[in-house]
């Protein structure tokens, strides 16, 4: 089993229901277990082209026997099943699933770029990620001093996933 970290974000429609639906779908993936889920973080839209609602972001740690490309395929499938439409670059979306980290795997391709190149720059990823890995982690990343924490004023903890998403 490999450990995989996904980043989820939603800022269109009912953000609570969207995160619930995505987590339910992840829990039904074959050969995969959801090991832990970060708190829900409300974050100002970062690097977007228009006026948008705040995001709700979480990170999810999975254990899986799926390959990196199968995990990506599952993420894209969940986005599609939830009705995601891609029109504008970084437009508002009901669900975005990013493969942030996959244990023992690095690939720099447009179709699958892992570790995700934005991790250290994005407060909306760093806050939930640091909750999953408060100390050392198996991915060789030191999140604690990442530059993205400078945007921490725009990040608010909504609550534990257990409370908010049950
Ligand atoms: N690590 C990754 N996780 C998810 N998708 C990836 C990854 N690396 C490359 N991709 C590719 O990116 C495409 C998804 O782009 P999408 O429109 O969701 O980008 P975005 O989420 O808006 O931007 P960003 O990647 O900056 O967060 C997918 O078709 C996928 O093939
Ligand atoms: N706060 C926040 N901003 C974003 C997010 C996101 O998940 N949260 N996702 C983006 C494109 O993937 C662009 N900007």
Task: Describe the model.
- With 166 residues, the chain is of the alpha+beta class.
- It has one domain (2-164): Alpha-Beta Plaits, CATH 3.30.70.560.
- 25% of the residues lie in helices and 27% in strands.
- The chain has 4 helices and 8 strands.
- The strands form 2 sheets. Strands 1, 2, 3, 4, 5 and 8 form a 6-stranded antiparallel beta sheet that branches. It has a two-stranded antiparallel sheet with strand order 6-7.
- It is globular.
- Adenosine-5'-triphosphate (ATP) is lined by residues 72, 75, 86, 90, 96, 98-99, 111-114, 116, 118.
- Adenosine-5'-triphosphate (ATP) binds next to helix 2, strand 5 and strand 7.
* SSE ordering: EHEEEHEEEHEH
Could you tell me the CATH topology label: Alpha-Beta Plaits
Query: Structural class of the helix and strand makeup?
Result: alpha+beta
User: According to CATH, what is the class?
Assistant: Alpha Beta
- Would you identify the CATH architecture? 2-Layer Sandwich
What percentage of amino acids are in beta strands?
A: 25-35%
Task: Summarize model confidence as the mean pLDDT.
Answer: 93
Low-pLDDT residue intervals, each spanning 5 or more residues? none
Radius of gyration: 15 Å
Q: What best-fitting shape do the alpha-carbon axes yield? A: globular
Distance between the termini: 27 Å
What kind of sheet is the major sheet?
A: 6 strands, antiparallel
Distinct ligands, ions and cofactors found in the model:
adenosine-5'-triphosphate, 2-amino-6-hydroxymethyl-7,8-dihydro-3H-pteridin-4-one
Q: Structurally, how many domains make up the residues?
A: 1
Count of extended strands:
8
Percent in helix: 10-25%
């Amino acid at each position: 089993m490999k450990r995989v970290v996904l980043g989820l974000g939603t800022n269109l429609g009912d953000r609570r229901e969207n995160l619930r639906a995505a987590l339910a779908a992840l829990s039904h993936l074959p050969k995969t277990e959801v090991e832990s889920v970060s708190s829900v973080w409300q974050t100002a839209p970062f690097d977007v082209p228009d006026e948008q609602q705040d995001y709700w972001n979480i990170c999810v740690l999975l254990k899986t026997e799926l390959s990196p490309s199968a995990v990506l395929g599952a993420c894209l499938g969940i986005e599609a099943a939830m009705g995601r439409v891609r029109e504008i670059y970084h437009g508002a979306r009901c669900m975005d699933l990013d493969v942030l980290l996959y244990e023992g795997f690095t690939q720099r391709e447009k179709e699958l770029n892992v570790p995700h190149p934005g991790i250290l720059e994005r407060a909306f990823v760093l806050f939930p990620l640091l909750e999953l890995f408060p100390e050392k982690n198996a991915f060789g990343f030191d999140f604690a001093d990442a530059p993205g924490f400078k945007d921490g004023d725009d990040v608010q903890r909504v609550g534990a996933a257990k409370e908010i998403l049950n």
